[in-house]
Amino acid sequence: MRPTAKDLAEAAGVSLATIDRVLNERPNVSPKAAKKVAEAIERIGFIRNPAAVALARNKTYRFRFVLPTSGDQYLTELIARVSEAKDVLRAESTEVEVVRIPMIDPHHVAKYLTAIDHCSVDGVAVMAPESPQVRDALVRLVERDVKVVQFLSGQERLESADYVGVDNFAAGATAGKIAGRFLGAQAGKIMIVAETMMALDSIQRRLGFDSIINTQFPHLESLPSLETYADEKRADLIIQRTLQHNPDTVGVYVLSSEARVPLTAVWNAQGSRPLTVVAHERTPFSEQALMDERIDAVIAQDPGHAVRSALRIMRARSDHRELLASQERIRIEVLLKENL
User: N or C: which end of the chain has fewer CB within 10 A?
Assistant: First the structure.
């Protein structure tokens, strides 16, 4: 049986009222009594019940997801999963909100993060591109005792913050292996399309992809990365020109999370030539394209798992509890038409 507060009081030789004051960090506890309780906790293996502590303190946890204003279906999926978690956690004295801000200007993002009041927010999960300004703002948030999760984004990992997402180098390498296997002995070029190569996750996926193509499939050539900036007209133009100037293109790899715009441009421009296509993230668009066999494989990470993991991490950090690392590891999933 797990030791109770009554067991702890007996082991420490103090009253239950003193145990309550120590565990809930209330005043009027002598250093001697606090030391007795701390020693007894170690001796009998007492584990605090975070839910009971929160109830005793009348504490409400306040967590915020900071997400981009611009985005397509994958961002919609993330927001839907946050909404689900919000409804479930309301009964556990936990408030969850989403704030969407433009991510183009790193100074604007940093200004927003700097203005977050640590007295009104316990934890933030931030999905923002890598920049020195954003990195410094996240460090300052941690210094103000706000629990920070770098969420599914291309940010340099901070030692003082947590990260939720897949290993992007491994995800890119997985895409390279699949593209190479699907193409077999067919020689040619692979077009690489990203929303932006300013994001660290895009860079890591590109490096992972190239590491496999260059070493294991020397008959294939990866073209320079194309950046669409989520602009449909730009995507149409640069993809059409690339296919015109590279008639030996045999494959397409979309390494950003939103594949609808670039792949629509690819299909409009490819004509009758067959292309092996690998993309990232499960959305209604990518699901339908898999079913129609216009996409061969999707490298995915479960958005619901990512959202729940970020919330568990922020809650654990707020309660000063250790994390179960295996539970928070986001898997790289490979989706085909046959396993949807």
Answer: N
State how far the Cα of 267 lies from the Cα of 162, in Å rounded to an integer. 39
8 Å CB contact between 162 and 313: yes
178 close to 297: Cβ distance less than 8 angstroms? yes
Region 106-114: what's the mean pLDDT? 95
- Domains (range + CATH), the chain: 5-47 (1.10.260.40), 61-164+303-330 (3.40.50.2300), 168-300 (3.40.50.2300)
Q: For strand 297-300 and strand 333-335, is the pairing parallel, antiparallel, or unpaired?
A: antiparallel
The total number of residues written for the chain in this structure: 340
Cβ atoms of 254 and 205 within 8 Å: the answer is no
Q: Which of 326, 191, 321, 318 minimizes the C-alpha distance to 245?
A: 191
Residue 279's region, left for phi above 0, alpha for psi from -120 to 50, else beta, is: beta
SS3 122: coil
- Measure the CA–CA gap between 124 and 147, rounded to whole angstroms: 6
230-265 per-residue burial string, b: 16 or more CB within 10 A, e: under 16: beeeebbebbeebbeeeeebbbbbbbbbbbbbbbbb
Q: Which residues contact 2 (CB under 8 A, 6 or more apart)?
A: 47
**Per-residue pLDDT reduced to its tens digit, 11-27:** 889 888 887 788 777 77
Most confidently predicted of 24-33, 274-283, 322-331: 274-283
CA distances to 57, 78, 192, 307 from 297, in Å: 50, 21, 15, 24
Pinpoint the alpha helices (H) of 246-302: 260-269, 284-291
The structure's pTM equals: 0.81
- Residues with Cβ within 8 Å of 319's Cβ and at least 6 positions away in sequence, in order, are 48, 50, 53, 54
Torsion of the alpha carbons at 198, 199, 205 and 210, rounded to the nearest 10:
10
CB 134 within 8 A of CB 155: yes
* CA gap 1, 225 in Å, rounded: 59
Asked if 147 and 121 touch (Cβ cutoff 8 Å), the reply is no
Structure tokens at 115: 């203005």
